[in-house]
Write a structure and sequence with these properties.
- With 79 residues, the chain is an alpha+beta fold.
- Helix content is 41%, strand content 20%.
- The protein has two helices and two strands.
- Strands 1-2 form a two-stranded antiparallel ribbon.
């Protein structure tokens, strides 16, 4: 079970890094930093870059249907 969670966290981190390379730098060279901490049953990872920003387009959301990023991550990673 622990190895399965490790694999899912590794996959999620890989996907975030690929998104930075593809979208922040357009596939070209750039800087990417990954930092993290782990304690007991909690892992926190932070990915930062200096690539180009994207244009944020707000959209109307149903407040009753909203979830936090953590809720989405838990569901996707089946944690």
């Amino acid at each position: 079970m622990i190895r399965l969670r490790h694999n899912k966290i590794e996959l999620a981190l890989h996907e975030v890094c690929v998104n930075v390379v593809d979208h922040a730098y357009g596939g070209g060279p750039g800087e990417l930093t990954v930092a993290g901490t782990a304690a007991d049953t909690t892992v926190e990872l932070r990915v930062t870059d200096t690539g180009g920003a994207f244009e944020f387009k707000p959209m109307e959301l149903d407040a009753k249907a909203m979830t936090t990023d953590a809720d989405v991550a838990r569901k996707r990673l089946d944690l």
